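Re: that chain you flagged

S.,

Sorry for the slow reply, it's been a week of failed gels. I finally had a moment to sit down with the sequence you sent. For the record, here it is as I used it:
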Amino acid sequence: MITGVLVALWFSALGCDITTDITTDTTTPQALPEAPYVEIIDVSSRPYNEDDILRFELLNDETALLQELYDLAVTHFPSGSWINFGPDSAYREIVFFSRGRKIRLSSWHPIFEQDPRLVASSEGITSLGGKTREEFLAQDDLEYVAQRRAFDEIEARLRQRYGS
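Prediction finished late last night. Pasting the structure tokens below so you have them in one place:
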């Protein structure tokens, strides 16, 4: 038996609940018996299949990074969730299972901002209107921008360490 932590990169279709064994209440961190791991899920409208699942096994000495990122998530999202997407939209979700708790962070900004003309602001998806994304966000809600940056840092550090 391999001991360690699992980091999974999953892509799924809208309405496809790939964590059916986990409670979906996102109002508070959830108590869970599982070993620590994190999932990054892109929820979109394309069909989901087994080829969309990439898994990375971690060694026990790598749990420090996961714990550090979990602490960052708890600091910026103390309720245990962040729901930052509109109805029927694609979004990226990061789900932490650590220290017997679950944190679910969901945002559409990584998906929609692949179009260089758009920005996901605190009020929704909109055109940059001739500004750079940084200029636009400098005038947006400070708490929202801090949460976006925390989400991006968590995702970037996971992808830097474990790949796509």
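What I noticed first: Residues 1-27, 48-56 have pLDDT under 50 and may be disordered.

Talk soon,
D.
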